[in-house]
Amino acid sequence: MKTGLGAAAALEAILDATPVMPPETIAVSSALGRVLAEAVESDRRLPPADNSAMDGYAVRRADVAGASTERSIELPIAYTIPAGGDASRPLEPGEAARILTGAPVPPGADAVVRQEDTESDGERVRVLVSPSPRENIRDAGEDVQRGDRVIESGAVIGPGHVGMLASLGRSVVAVHQRPRVALLSTGDELVEPDQSVDGGRIVSSNSYSLAAQCRAVGADPVYLGIARDTPEDVEQCFRAGLGADVLVSSAGVSVGDYDFVRDVLEKIGCGVIFWGVQIKPGYPLVFGRIEGGPLVFGLPGNPVSAMMTFEQFVRPALRKLTGHHKLFRPTVRARLAETLTKKPGRLHFVRVELERSGGDIVARGAGNQSSGALRSMTRAQGLLVFPSEDTELAEGAFATVQVLDDEFFASEEPGF
Amino acid sequence: MKTGLGAAAALEAILDATPVMPPETIAVSSALGRVLAEAVESDRRLPPADNSAMDGYAVRRADVAGASTERSIELPIAYTIPAGGDASRPLEPGEAARILTGAPVPPGADAVVRQEDTESDGERVRVLVSPSPRENIRDAGEDVQRGDRVIESGAVIGPGHVGMLASLGRSVVAVHQRPRVALLSTGDELVEPDQSVDGGRIVSSNSYSLAAQCRAVGADPVYLGIARDTPEDVEQCFRAGLGADVLVSSAGVSVGDYDFVRDVLEKIGCGVIFWGVQIKPGYPLVFGRIEGGPLVFGLPGNPVSAMMTFEQFVRPALRKLTGHHKLFRPTVRARLAETLTKKPGRLHFVRVELERSGGDIVARGAGNQSSGALRSMTRAQGLLVFPSEDTELAEGAFATVQVLDDEFFASEEPGF
User: Which of the residues A223, B31, B155, B187 has the least number of beta carbons within 10 Å of its own beta carbon?
Assistant: First the structure.
């Protein structure tokens, strides 16, 4: 076991130990946001047949060569082909067929004249233009040919993919399973939100914030409750999570407590890979793995430390498990609205509010940066990376910010 | 009724007619991503009592004034206060109390000396430093005071908000209701994905892609099925959606068909506000409102036109209904990898792939731009805005791109 790793080394150790979830087959209509675990090939052509791009008249070009407003050419309307209609009757020389958008083009026709370029009494049509070859005809297979690999494995399924899968006649699709994350908190002082906080009790908010962090990344949280500060109770809670893909506890890992949790981890067969990361907040993070069982994260108990270590270390692991290739938050370079200072030795994540100003993004501290001050996490749109050995970031300087709040990118204007 | 509106005017007409959904009360644990419909005030202080920021010893500063490594001061350990423990016993002069992180500070104590700055045999503690006033004590209410407005109405609920609500003892919260969107397709040629496509039939993929677009924006799709091309069937389908907040049909609105749908809309009491928007793809969009009933969008039937008009016009309306203030996609300025041309008169939305190159974002056409070519919507990460009156955007020039794919912003590196 290693202790006091740098943030990058800790992340590397975690991702090295993190597998990708096996596939499962689910309904296409439930697949939004999931990561595709198969390459999708087409067993058909799209569109399936030559069809009309417009409402108009299918013609043989030879019959209307040279037609114009001044020199219109009149043809009898032999029949009508609606969308989804039958196009087995060929178009004979000297005939036109009324055709609607999406309707199959009949054999013999080699162009469609759009309605706006004709005049008609219902029996006969006067063609006012001379169409070019295959004008207004969408060719069978112009979008997708039989055998085409239409979507690559690893794609994150969006609405366009859902529509395409439906178009290909697919009702189910293989995606990576969602990781199940067992969550537990430890501490005699903790109560559930609807219980009394008299006598120094505090609400076990971590299971709520951590469950929300799981959901936000597409994982499936399972809440195991609050373990009391006895080895028996903690062990029992941990054991209840052994069937999950990831086991996340909070509290019980600080200097004074750690021996206690380590004993429990050993008893349940968890090989501890490291304890302690050179970051603030969140130093006392424990990471281990149970052979044939879950990844195990012991997060510190302070509300901000728990969320921060989840954000930096559990979230990328969950993204990898889920099949994602880009594991991390968007980052931006932001200009500091105030000078920040710290001691060297640990990388600090500073909770910041973000604001666009001119062409720049400006970052400003989101209030009390104590590891217990959860309010800052309701205000923070980003986490500013204050590197390990730096002691000052001056007002006006630029720094890297991890953007937590997707809404930051949303716009108040449509772009047109 | 107006026809052939510009895109901005159409959007304005839609948003003017769009209300905000009324509130509903839901469990905090289900509130992630919802928009808060109340201001959250605190009925308590956080932390609830003065408590220790470290594992260590509560002392009276006067007893350890001048202590140092060379001149340590020894005190008896009178008792221990665990997290969640009882701090009613005052600390008498000349005593120390063992205290754990988060535990309440006893009356009389005015500093906590952290464990690393002491030596102890379990009975007595040697203090090696002289603490400053209230050192390592977190003051009651330092994060939140009773009566503080902690979260503003209109906030999009993230994991930090969920944790804060739990900390405040809230188990339910008021949020804007999710709009219910009734979806129907019309067309004799349409079949469900698991049905045969022989004889020119095509899969009704629009209800799948549009349902996914609804879900992606936090709305709740209700699929009403495929209406056949008879006035009776279309009317019956529309009527089935009258209880929804938004009614979205696809197909049946192009030039040849429109009278037909207009008759149905009139019969069900829908006041049509406009028909036709000067965009491509997607011109024949119908928008109306049923008094006391849903907003009504008649989208064109081509798969890309349906998705595009949803994206540009239905999505912002759904964002407004849901309570969001920023209604639109992120936009970026992107450099064109190829020259684009068009006729003047309509605003084009060009489906593009995006790539970062140096400091720039480069946009490249995502394949066949036909309104029937859905494959482009599986590849497009953005929609490039090709303004109405422009006829050429030259390779190397910059243009506005609406970013569809949130994953575009995700990063392959952690930022530290």
Answer: A223
Rounded Cα gap, residues B209 and B207, in angstroms: 6
Report the pLDDT value the prediction gives residue A85, as an integer from 0 to 100.
Answer: 78
Q: Say yes or no: A29 and A150 in one domain.
A: yes
Q: Is residue B219 situated within a structural domain? A: yes
Taking the Cβ of residue A226 and every Cβ of chain B, the question of whether any pair is shorter than 8 Å is answered with no
CB atoms within 10 A of CB B231: 13
- Dihedral sign (CA A253, A259, A262, A268): negative
Chain A (371-400) residues lying within 8 Å, Cβ to Cβ, of chain B? 372-375, 377-380, 385, 387, 400
Within this chain, do residues B34 and B56 fall inside the same structural domain, yes or no?
A: no
- The model's confidence at residue B252, banded by pLDDT at 50, 70 and 90, is confident
Pairing, β A202-203 against β B2-5: unpaired
Query: Do A335 and A269 share a structural domain?
Result: no
CB contact under 8 A, B370 and A28: no
Query: Which residue in chain A has the smallest CA separation from B157?
Result: A378
For residue B336, what is the domain's CATH number? 2.40.340.10
Q: How far is CA B201 from CA A137, A147, B227, B331, B371, in A?
A: 17, 20, 14, 38, 18
Cα nearest neighbour of A136 on chain B: B370
- Counted across chains A and B, CB pairs separated by less than 8 A come out at 372
What are the chain B neighbours of A387 within 8 Å (beta carbons)? Answer: 416
Can you read off the two tokens belonging to residue A178? 């969602």
Mean pLDDT of A14-43: 98
Is there a domain that residue A416 lies in?
Answer: no
pLDDT at A254: 66
A152 and A221 in a single domain? The answer is no
Could you say which of B171, B188, B326 has the minimum Cβ distance to residue A82?
B188
Residues of A in contact with B370 (CB under 8 A): 53, 138, 142-143
Cα(A48)–Cα(B369) distance, integer angstroms: 18
- State pTM to two decimals: 0.95
- At B304-336, the pLDDT tens digits run 999 999 999 999 999 999 999 999 999 999 999
What's the gap between Cα A161 and its chain centre? 13
Strands A190-191 and A51-52: unpaired
ipTM attached to this prediction: 0.94
pLDDT greater than 70 at residue A20: yes
Q: How many CA atoms lie within 13 A of A94 on its CB side?
A: 0
Q: Which domain holds residue B158?
A: 23-41+152-176
B6 CB burial (10 A radius; 0-12, 13-18, 19+): middle
CB A305 within 8 A of CB A254: no
CA distances from B276 to A55, B290, B385 (A): 16, 19, 18
Q: Which amino acid belongs to residue A289?
A: R
Q: Do A193 and B166 touch (CB under 8 A)?
A: yes
pLDDT above 70 for A114: yes
The dihedral through the CA atoms of A99, A105, A108, A113 has a sign that is: positive
For A305-343, b/e burial (b = at least 16 CB within 10 A) is: bbbbbbbbbbbbbbbbbbbbebbbbbbbebbbeeebebe
Flag whether residue B1 sits within 8 Å of chain A, measured between CB atoms. Answer: no
* Minimal Cβ distance to A209: which of B160, B168, B373: B160
> What pLDDT is stored for residue B197 in this prediction?
81
